[in-house]
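tool=predict chain=A
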Amino acid sequence: MNKLARILRHRWLDERDLARALDDATLERIEARVAASEKRHSGEIRVCAEAGLPLSYLWRGASARERAVTMFGKLRVWDTEQNNGVLIYLLLAEHRIEIVADRGLNQRVSASQWQEVMERMRASFRQGQFEAGLNDAIDAVDALLVQHFPLAPGQANPNELSDRPHLR
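tool=predict ok
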């Protein structure tokens, strides 16, 4: 896609489009799913969705992955005690998804495992089922965190990051 077409596509979509894809009830269910997940492991999961990339990213041809890494930092997902935070990122304009995991988890999970998680999300997104795709991703990340960072009996996971999806 050429630069101008990409810019127009991203500028065409806005917060209203994002709100239609992820309405308030959906956001509440996703938030509850993240909160329930974090009772099973010591990791932190953040969901971030954007209608389109900022103009500065579009102008220089930046990828959805680059934006996801930036949001990983801005939302302080990297700043968890055990370095096991995970960002699940959705870019509506391109139906792109990215998963960015901190080094504590990333060193234990292969690139092919992350690809499997993203493929399941893509299948749902292609059908316009954004909530189902995000739920699949949350469940898959939850399983990886339970496998690698389980809570001991009686141990609690202090909630270091908001469970509410971040929309832009």
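The chain is about 50% helix and 15% strand. The first strand starts at residue 44 and ends at 50.
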